[in-house]
Amino acid sequence: MPIMTKMRDSMPAILIGLVVVFLITIVFEWGMDYTGNRGQRNDTIGIIDGKKITYTEFSELVKKQSDQMKEQSKTEADDNTLRSIREQVWNSLVTQAIVDQASERAGITVTNQEIVDWVRGENPPEFLAQQFRDSTGRFNRAAYEAALNDPRNKEIWVQVESALKQQRLAEKMQSLILATVRATPGEIEQRFADQNLKMNAEYAFLDPAVFVPDAEVTPTEDDLKKFYNEHQAEFKNPALRKLKYIFFNDQPSASDSSDVVNEMNSVLQQAKSGAEFTDLQRKYSEGQTEPAVVKHGETTPAKEKAVFSAKVGDIIGPVADVDGMHLMKIVEEKKADDAYVKARHILLSGAKESEAASMQLAKDLIARAKKGEDFAGLAKQYSTEPGAVGSGGDLGWFGKGRMVKEFSDAALKGNTGDVIGPVKTQFGIHVIKIEGRDSRELKVADILMSIKTSGQTRDASYQRAQDFAYVAKEGKFESDAQSFGLAIQETPEFQKGPMVPGLGYFESVNKFAFKNDLGDVSDVYQVTNGYIVAQIADVKKEGIRPFDEVKEGLQARVLHKKKLAKLKELAAQKRSSIGDNGDLRALVAADPRVRFDTTGSFVYGGPIPGIGREYAFAGAAKSADLNKVSQPVEGTRGVYLVKVTARPEIDKAALSVQQTVLSAQMLQEKKQRALSTWLEKMKETASIEDNRDNFYR
Fold first, then answer.
1. Rounded-to-10 torsion of CA 623, 626, 628, 629
2. Is residue 186 part of a domain?
3. Is 674 among the domain residues?
4. What is the pLDDT of residues 524-562, one digit of tens each?
5. Is 72 helix (H, G, I), strand (E, B) or coil?
6. 162 shares a domain with 81
């Protein structure tokens, strides 16, 4: 909806973007009374820091959001989309409640006069002003004032003013949070330098694999324990869960399919009784509502076969296809500019060492195919193309430009029944059989009816899941599943959060796993394409992995660390031998194991030519004195001695040109981080009761 888009573009980030835009849009478009006390029924879907959200309020917000999405996409929201919308609405309400509570504690208020001055002032709220701009962007002040003063708009303006208070409150709260956020001149200059100052360096590299044999630095038990104690954060085990679950499919049943076929046959009877087919298409089709041109190779095989086997005036179907049932009528036929062919092919290796053999095999296969051997069978036996065993080399229909030039040129010259080749392309040697040739394009009126899960089918699936959950909670999950004839599936281990591997983003299922104990059986949860009943199959609590469990894996890391420590000592000695101003090449002359190289130009924030991402090297180069040999630099791959040969001073003029952009960029980044951090901390300390699972399957 244009209003939504325009408003969203005009709001500040995060607090305004996540909360106020959403709520203001709903209030303005539909008069949603979020700030009032409309929901007095005992249907609380959640409580956020003491503020109750009723199911009525929540479901209306969800409905309006899904209605808006439907208007934009012209399609109904499916179950997955509705779940996503419910999550967005909930997050918006949580954020709004947090902002309200924080504003109250901070003593932030918004007076009625502030809103009046804003609405009546020279720069009214942009989302309102946008409704009174013409195609050139000119604001029609007279029309705006007339709308403000029209008594018929009194109720909607009350809602708008309420929403504007929420926006201004969030803006003030945001300003308070960001009051100390700055991008200092020094930070801007450093960002400019990191992105633009190109350095060059020479370096000597000491490779631990070359200099330090494993036997010289064998890690002791104490070494391993010391490393383990110093890096315990790396060995922290998150809490993990694993689920066993039964999946109850809620996909369309045979009855659902039959209902669509019956409806299609009813439409077919209308067409046979004289109803204009294009009128029926506009009335009933869930897809295109006007006839469209169908070309060979640009539709599904089922529709391709059906329509190109018919003639103008024929009504075809119902035809089952991947997207549902189709009833079609051939409206018009015309000759295409270029022909289309239907072909199969056999692909043979085109590698130089085997090209002669492939060419000979291709000629043999051509001869066999021309004598009548089944071409699809030959393709299954000889073709190196992935999938040829299943498809028999079938390429379907195609026209000019769909295949590589050599293949296309050869195939499109062929007639039905021709065996063509050998044809050489970048992919190899081809043998081609032409199975059809046509130059028609058809205009087709197509009525699409998708096959959807009926409420009856969904209810039956849900009831089966409920029946199983009831029995499994009283009995034994596995044996009960067996008695019901149900297959048990199992998730991998997973952490706390919105994700359950194998199922997707279903926070409610994840919450069940972490709020309950081993062996507990869940209620019914809706997931993609159905429902599940789950049992907690494994519980691992958060903690540090024991030393004995990680000991073996520490060997290589401690060995590498000890090698680097020894190398740093050796590198320091070598540096002493040449001094601060020495020639790093001399180290190679004295010890051929040392590798000398130059980097070419690189910037601090980018990869280093010949080395890649080596942050210790880049950091040393950034601060080292020009043409001086650095102290040993411990990198991830080994130890470096670095000599920076070029690092220009900051170009103040170039910095001045970019300063405004860099300042805005850095300030925005800092603001985003500050607001995100604040919001996450507030959510962690907020009292949030989420009862959505009690209202939605």
1. 50
2. no
3. no
4. 998 888 899 999 999 999 999 899 989 999 999 999 999
5. helix
6. yes
